[in-house]
Amino acid sequence: MTVTKMSWRPTYRSSKFRNVYGKVANREHCFDGIPITKNVHDNHFCAVNSKYLAIVTESAGGGSFIVIPVTQSGRIEPHHPKVCGHQGNVLDIKWNPFIDNIIASCSEDSSVRIWEIPEGGLRRNMTEAVLELYGHSRRVGLIEWHPTTSGILFSAGYDYKILIWNLEIGEPVKMIDCHSDVILCMSFNTDGSLLATSCKDKKLRVIEPRSGRVLQEANCKNHKVNRVVFLGNMKRLLTTGVSRWNTRQIALWDQEDLSMPIVEEEIDGLSGLLFPFYDPDTHMLYLAGKGDGNIRYYEVATEKPYLLYLMEFRSPAPQKGLGVMPKHGLDVAACEVFRFYKLVTLKGLIEPISMIVPRRSETYQEDIYPMTAGTEPSLTADEWLSGINRDPVLMSLKDGYSRPNQLVFKAPVKEKKSVVVNGIDLLENVPPRTENELLRMFFRQQDELRRLKDELTQKDVKIRQLELELNNLRNSSNSV
């Protein structure tokens, strides 16, 4: 009789990231005393680069955000200078990936603005933007810089349109008009040739941005998509959302076939939005819930089981949003592979959280720091618009990031004129952006009506006088 032995040992997969842990910075390295916005819009309200930290703040009468050098940690003065040029609440901010002191913001006042932060940070309140971009007819909720091109910015508004701005001329050059509801999220693939969007109409789309053509579309009935992210060069998309049973869920998709997700995985029963963050260098995926203090992280593989759970960072303080430091701003000597800046609204606190791979050696760890996307654009705006695609210019982190960028932002001199995209004038009949502007427009129109009525009355009197003079001339000629 032959006995077949069965092994119940689970399959073991070795991973260099299985022991990654989260380390919260000491109190003196946190940023304290910041009046973080109480806006309920589902964005991060935070943007970080190797020089500056920007946070959207609570303010009365218009929107503002604060910019702090990342080295200036500790308690921030209550009267610290702010960027406060918007007439409505600021909804999103993003640093230019190639020029450290250029930041874009969008607002409820339906504008997108480009700001140039002076070297060393703000010394006084900044109200004048280097570029003001008007093209949306309703508030603008999302902005994204193109990942490989200098001077190309995408903006998504509540008018259901995505505008592509060429900042070299300060005007929109393309309009993507394929959404039937509010756009929730935008994500680019590595070379920026594809754009993935999630929308309130429960559809996931992969779009060719230059033509606006929808290449793939998924109607998500069982998985209500909130956020989407491209997984580097793996030709995969990952979405976070809600299942039909209202549990938080993630799904993995093939970008060339969105008919069915490759895998779906339920996370938990909490109600907060799940923000996904992907690191293409380590193939690690981080999931952070809005309103809870946990950050789960996975390793993404090209074969089954695709998503390998690693560990979870836990914290009692709930997060409103998270900023992410670019790779060239990380501490390579401490084997730091990712760094979050966590917004804790109740405490007015920004907490850096470092994700660290434990290593005994103090030498440079090449296996966890491959060549990564650098700070030089691989294309100009005109090259990208003409149809050229190019991968990012890579850089090594071995010697640390010390090379200054030679790029300088030059704002175009704009003349007031109509903005025409695809034969449509976007500035025609643009509604007022705030209540005060509505009142000002109303009173201006009332004054204009009074002036026109007075002119009309005067012209009526003049016409009568001329008619009388004409009659007099006729009578005198007849008498003669």
> What is the count of β-strands?
34
What structural class do the secondary elements suggest?
mainly beta
Helix content: 10-25%
Q: Tell me the radius of gyration.
A: 28 Å
Give the DSSP E fraction (strand runs of 2 or more residues): 35-45%
**Low-confidence blocks of residues:** 1-12
From the spread of the alpha carbons, the general shape counts as: elongated
Number of helices: 2
End-to-end Cα distance: 146 Å
Q: How would you summarize what this structure contains?
A:
The chain contains 2 helices and 34 strands. The chain has helices at residues 381-385, 435-479, and strands at 21-24, 31-32, 46-48, 52-57, 63-69, 74-75, 82-86, 90-95, 102-107, 111-116, 131-134, 140-145, 152-157, 162-166, 171-176, 183-188, 195-199, 203-208, 213-219, 223-230, 236-243, 248-254, 263-268, 274-279, 284-289, 295-300, 307-313, 322-324, 336-344, 349-356, 372-373, 394-395, 420-421, 424-425.
